[in-house]
Amino acid sequence: MPDPVRLRLSALDQLPDRDPEETAEWGASLDAVAAAAGTHRAGQLVRRTVEHAQATGIDVPSLLETDYINSIPTGAEPEFPGDEAMEARITAWNRWNAAAMVTRGARYGVGGHIATFASAAWLYETGFQHFFRGKDAADAPGSGDQLFIQGHASPGIYARAFLDGRLTEAHLDNFRQESGGAGLPSYPHPRRLPWLWEFPTVSMGIGPLSAIYQARFNRYLENRGIKDTSASHVWAFLGDGEMDEPESTAALALAGREGLDNLTFVINCNLQRLDGPVRANFKIVQELEAQFRAAGWNVIKTLWGSAWDDLLRADTTGALVRRLREVPDAQFQTYATRDVAYIRDHFFGTEPALAQLGASLSDAKIAECFHTSRGGHEPRKVYAAYRAAVEFKGAPTVVLAQTVKGHTLGDGFQSRNANHQMKKLSLEQFRTMRDLLELPIPDSELSGDLVPYAHPGPDSPEVRYLQERRAALGGPAPARRVHQVVLPEPSEKAFKALEKGSGSQEVATTMVIVRLVKDLMREKESGRRWVPIVPDEARTFGMESMFPSAGIYSPLGQTYESVDRDQLLHYKEAVNGQILNEGITEAGSMADFTAAATSYATHGEPMIPFYIFYSMFGWQRTGDQMWALGDQLGRGFIVGATAGRTTLTGEGLQHADGHSPLIASTNPAALTYDPAFAYEVGVIVKDGLRRMYGPDAEDVFYYLTVYNEPKPQPAMPEGVEEGILRGLYRFNEGSAPSAEAPRVQLMASGTAIHWVLEAQRLLAEQWGVAADVWSATSWSELRRDALSCDAAQLRGEDRVPYVTRALRGARGPVLAVSDWMRAVPDQISQWVEQDYSSLGTDGFGLSDTREAARRHFGVDPQSIVVAALDRLARAGDVKRETVLAAREAYGL
């Protein structure tokens, strides 16, 4: 009879077997063990053999999944260095005040979350007491560690800041009540509380993605010689439900590939997401373990508390481990809320070996194990996991810590599906919590309508201990600190070249900005601080000339011979490379940008990130990250290249951006410009460097749209700098055949200026109409100024919007044209005193020539002429027959 083992297909069958008989003996030995001692014993031997092989350097692939037990056995835990009883009291105060803050806020209906921090309290406290470096750490001055706090745990961080004296009761009572100016934001938010929070994290998925690229950027700074960040560690605290977000796991392979051992993920596996179990019918811990191991991470599972030690030692048959592996998460959540009889029947009653084990356990032991004993609730086990994480070299680490959501909040909260939405405790529940935490709060303080905050006193042993530990670790955390470093102004040479224009040479504005940045990277003082970022489209944007000079960053350098090594513009990777070429990932590139854009605060080192991408794939694809960038007070230049809906010949609707400036205008931190000419690009970039890196640096970032359509670049007219920056100036005045000739104002942004200039010529030569041409460099900045003026008017100030003043006295109707949907130029319509109308590219894009696409959308020069004549006819300045004649003449 054929051997069933030999009938299985195996990749190893491709390779020569030097001793098939020996191979067969190993298989037979396993069969014998399984027959004599059971499959559990056979599997144990295999795993032990694999572990031994890996420990001795034998090349054996790692297992993707291990048993549902702790990675670090109790006997291997290091000695706990702190006063565990003292730290337990500190944690108890924090638990109380976090719950009290949210409950007191419930009077005003502002919401809040209690259960998340209740489950994760020890995960944070152990880090704060023993691991998280502050900004004054001797080995990481000005940087410390970077803490990405889980958003829903913010009440616990506020409670700790209250305990150490950084916040007062008044602050806590203004939780989620910020309009008065002294409130606490609901979640980690640097823009609202800039001295405390460094990273906004509650837009789930962005935190883990940003943490990976922050750790990578720390290495980038070190490898480029900007700053020694070798002692800085990035800690990202995440929820197991948050790992469903695609951004949460999008860059795991990058972290593993580059060996980012300066990074630790701590995933709070309380098995619950917002509405119920994370993996009701499966096991989220096992799924995450396999996912992280496959990506090259070191995985530490901290699942069970010390109460489980006796159970695991008694599991001689493997029945307990097997049962732990097969019980789905939702069922284990149920065990945390059911009585011992149910657990005995449902968990231990499934097979004789388990029933025998269960019979040897007391009711109290079973209740402790299944109701509360989790690895994430015991500081010794958390400490052991963190110590192993920071000592592990060569790969990032993820700590999968199992907890009970709502731990210590009582039976009404613990492990309940609805606990994420439960915003308050009753006074009776607070009494129960007080007794459980052994806090010295008398009943008299719990007799009113309002639960009190509790504090042991500024000179109490708890506060002194807390402050001494933080001082030893480098000061308070989390904390954000800005050391203002003013960058010198660049020389005028690069900008003067743009002011001169290109003569008859045609140059696309995409190439203009790339060449400008390349020139600025040569600046002696500030050149090394530029961080060019591109998602695998460098050649599309003409950046290949930067490859050999600046180099592409890689922590491995270049371990191969480039196929184009003999060419002038060859592909070059280097450990100290300046360019971040991220592959096909706008999300990763944007995370890079954020890390660089906030380095002035995170590390006290201002960097100038320059992120260029297909404009269609920027704001549309990663707009949430750009919002987080504004939250984090980032600074730098974001460039939407190959912009517009009609400039990409043949690419079609999926590449044709007609709306990114509109999306960008929704971000209060974004200064959005759509320059038409090279000199406009120069003026905007120069002013951006001043505003973001000068002595009065502002927390803004720039979004510039540039085009791939080569055009002659004119010289800069006199005195237009203010108009360029404010958003509008008259580029030229139309000549009129007579003083009585009709006149129209043509306004355009970006590449549309060229269509308008041609329309200006046609109107004068063929229809006797004079047209003034205006360059609208920023529709959104014009609107922002106008909104500010409106607000000032309501306060009694006499302020007129810039756009109104600029156009005042201009004769005739105003026609605005752009390569965007009409809603972009229509942002300013209400502040234009003249008759105002617009043309744009509303609808889906399409594949065709530029000329055909513009005729399709009605924005080509001839369509502009007809639209201008139509507005003049409505005003009675030309006859209606003229409009019909023009339409017929142009075939419209």
Task: Note down, in words, how this protein is organized.
GO terms for molecular function: pyruvate dehydrogenase (acetyl-transferring) activity. Residues 487-710 form the Pyruvate dehydrogenase E1 component middle domain. It catalyses: N(6)-[(R)-lipoyl]-L-lysyl-[protein] + pyruvate + H(+) = N(6)-[(R)-S(8)-acetyldihydrolipoyl]-L-lysyl-[protein] + CO2. Pfam families: PDH_E1_M, Transketolase_C_1, Transketolase_N. Residues 727-860 form the Transketolase-like C-terminal domain. It is a single chain. The protein has 892 residues and is of the alpha/beta class. 40% of the residues lie in helices and 10% in strands. The strands form five sheets. It has a six-stranded parallel β-sheet with strand order 10-7-11-12-14-13, sandwiched between helices. A five-stranded parallel β-sheet has the order 1-2-3-5-4, with helices on both faces. The longest helix is centred in the N-terminal third of the chain and has 22 residues, at 84-105. The protein is globular. The termini are far apart.
Which secondary-structure class do the elements indicate? alpha/beta
- What is the helix content? 40-55%
| Euclidean distance between termini CA atoms | 83 Å
User: In which order are the strands of the major sheet placed?
Assistant: 10-7-11-12-14-13
Low-confidence stretches: none
Number of E-type strands: 20
Count of DSSP-assigned helices: 35
For the biggest sheet, the summary is: 6 strands, parallel
Q: What integer value in Å does the Rg equal? A: 33 Å
Protein name: Pyruvate dehydrogenase E1 component
Organism: Streptomyces carpaticus
GO molecular function, one term: pyruvate dehydrogenase (acetyl-transferring) activity
Catalytic activity: N(6)-[(R)-lipoyl]-L-lysyl-[protein] + pyruvate + H(+) = N(6)-[(R)-S(8)-acetyldihydrolipoyl]-L-lysyl-[protein] + CO2
